[in-house]
From TrEMBL:
Role according to the record: Neddylation of cullins play an essential role in the regulation of SCF-type complexes activity.
Protein's name in the database: Defective in cullin neddylation protein
PANTHER family: DEFECTIVE IN CULLIN NEDDYLATION PROTEIN, RP42 RELATED
Annotated Pfam families: Cullin_binding
Gene3D superfamilies assigned to the protein according to its UniProt record, in alphabetical order: Cullin, PONY binding domain, EF-hand
MF-aspect GO terms: cullin family protein binding; ubiquitin conjugating enzyme binding; ubiquitin-like protein binding
Cellular component aspect of the GO annotation: ubiquitin ligase complex
GO biological process, one term: protein neddylation
Sequence ranges assigned to domain DCUN1 in this UniProt record: 1-185
Biological source species: Smittium mucronatum
Amino acid sequence: MVGKFAFSNYKEAGQDYIGPEGFEELVQDLGYSMDGIEPIILSWLFGCTKMGFVSLSEWDKAFKSLKSSSKKSITSAVDAAKNSLKDPAVFKEFYQWVFSFAKEPNSKSVPSDISSSLYSVIFPTYTHIPQFIDYLNQNDTVKALNRDQWNSLLDFSLTVAPDFSNYDFEGSWPIVFDDFVAYSKK
């Protein structure tokens, strides 16, 4: 299979998957930092279903799609995907995928600390995101974000004015946004 030899350089001993340590080594070998968006994009391109892990089938499918297993082909694909995130429709698709990728398999939410870490990496310069990250980090009542809250943040950041003047507390926003707006206006 294409890419199988390279897969063996990163996989867990005796397993058919790359675990967190191997994934970090792969990311470093590609010249990326684990603190950037590139590892998340790489996981997206591989169709990964669990953060920090790449299965053999995900690896094989990705390299079959790339038609190459070279470092240049991987970094070119990551760069192209990163550039494609400038398209709002592609970014929305990526953003919604990140939720499924970040949550535990049987969970319906992403812990707020993981959410805030991901937001700081995946959002370019969207209105309200830095404030929302601060809100999550300083608010002990928000333990996790469900899919509706996660997906709504993108719409919230695109439609609500920087001064919240068009925010409707009676609207259909999840309650976390009512609390966030009230918190931000203090």
